[in-house]
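Forwarding these from the shared drive since the link keeps breaking.
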Amino acid sequence: MVGACLRIPYTLATATFGGRNASSMTNINAFYPQRLKGWALGVNAGGGNIGVPMVQLVGLLVIATAGNRQPYWVCAVYLGPRRR
């Protein structure tokens, strides 16, 4: 409900105040040529929505290999090694 209600003001705010350069759906819709718009919107939506399926796949892989007693490995695999 909150996301649905904030979608319109967020769209107007991005167009008014600026946002990511040629990356947000609002900017793509406003500034891309019509013939490239569909491809650009598809790539943007696909790239933005890849996180949840990746966590689910990593989670299944971890459960299949490490078992269900070590769920912390999901975070370790997904976040990867940290450098200091």
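-- next protein --
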Amino acid sequence: MTATSQPHVSARAEQALRVAMDRLLAGKPFRTDGKLTKNNLWREAGVSRATMNRANAVLADWDSRISGSPASLRDQKQTQEITALRRQLKENKEARQRLQDQVDASATVITVLLAENASLREQAANRSAVVVPLPRAQATYE
């Protein structure tokens, strides 16, 4: 398309998109979850996606303002927190697995010791308790 035949939007639709953009960038949406996406922009403005796509000036303004907005900074902070929490969760899962491996190994050792202890008790019970006298050596005292 040439510059003279580019599609345009009505002043009312452009104004609705700009008001919606301001609300989203301020972190105070009415109709959406507040994420800084173009889907939320047209929904927040109450216009169709096609109308938003024809609003080239609004979209250029959106792209230039999106990175420095308070909502964008909040989203970036949340993304960093989520990344840190996922890393911590992974480390905790690994630590839990190491501890579970230690518990399993300890349970195996305890089972072996219990069996050995039972065997020794059985051997001790089966020994005869008869005292056999030793022959007396003749003491010669001279």
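Residues 48 and 96 are 50 Å apart (CA to CA). The chain has five helices and no strands.

- D.
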